[in-house]
Write a structure and sequence with these properties.
The complex is a heterodimer of chains A (about 180) and B (about 160). Chain A contains five helices and seven strands. Chain A is an alpha/beta fold and about 180 residues long. Chain A has a seven-stranded mixed β-sheet. Chain B is mostly helical. The chains are: A alpha/beta (about 180), B mainly alpha (about 160).
Amino acid sequence: MSRKWVLFLPLSLVLLLAGLFGYALLSGVDPSEMPSALEGETMPAFRLSTVQDSRDMLSADDLLGEPFLLNIWATWCPSCKWEHPYLNSLAQEGVRIIGVNYKDERELAQAWLNDYANPYEIDLFDPNGDLGFELGVTGAPETFFIDAQGVIRYRFQGPIDSALWHDELKAVYDSLH
Amino acid sequence: MTRFIKPLRELLVLVLIGAALTASAEQEQRYFDNDALRDRYEQLIWELRCPKCQNQNIAGSNAPIAADMRDKTYELLHQGYSDAQIIDYMIERYSEFVTYKPRVTWGTVWLWLIPGAGLLTGALVVLWLARRSASQPAAPISAAERQRLNELLQRESDES
């Protein structure tokens, strides 16, 4: 008779699930936030020119040696414009940032970098989004944290601002060294 | 009656033209070496999920990334990739999210195990209940109860 608790098993399971769903709803879990398939992987090989010079071809090896942020941006992307001043101040603090101009036009990208200052040590030009595809990019801006050996350690979707950097991302960047 | 039919017919023609135009706007012009390849393409873009837009496949999505994935699917098909290889290629870049049929891994095996475990638990509970009621025969009724029962049965048969 003492085993009557078995009858309450379904109810407790339902309550457990309700708790789980309630937690997911109320704690602000973002369902559009996706894990990157590439964290822990070496960055994909590519061969792209720079924004400034169509004859200046670079490959992944040209980026390595020191940890860096790989920032995916475009002139058609409003949040990239919003993020841009903060990237400039990060670059001034000595953070190494490499830009990937994603699915854009060379002239527009050049004008942007002239007008709004250039935070990028290297500007890659990815007009067809080939490197973006290899990286699993779904839109701009996105920032990959890559160590000196070229291993992708972290991917951040969306624009970076001062609060985000100091609360979360700076620690990730420091851990790359 | 006939004076309504002509405007109606014109309206219908307009609606059909509109439908045809929107349909062709969504359809990309693609050329395939053979029909088998086209069928596999249609199947794949139906099965792959757009990573940018929630709950849309790449066939139905207008997101730029979905267009890129359709291009890549088309390209890989013509390079001789198998369907499974193309899906793996997408998963390697866009994570498990892009497939509606998750592969069996330590992270996803629960999708199969939990329903099984639920069924098993349910079956065990039912079995346990059946066993318990079988092992405990109903207590014999007392003389007073028997008399009351007989009265009730008597009344029933009288009424019918």
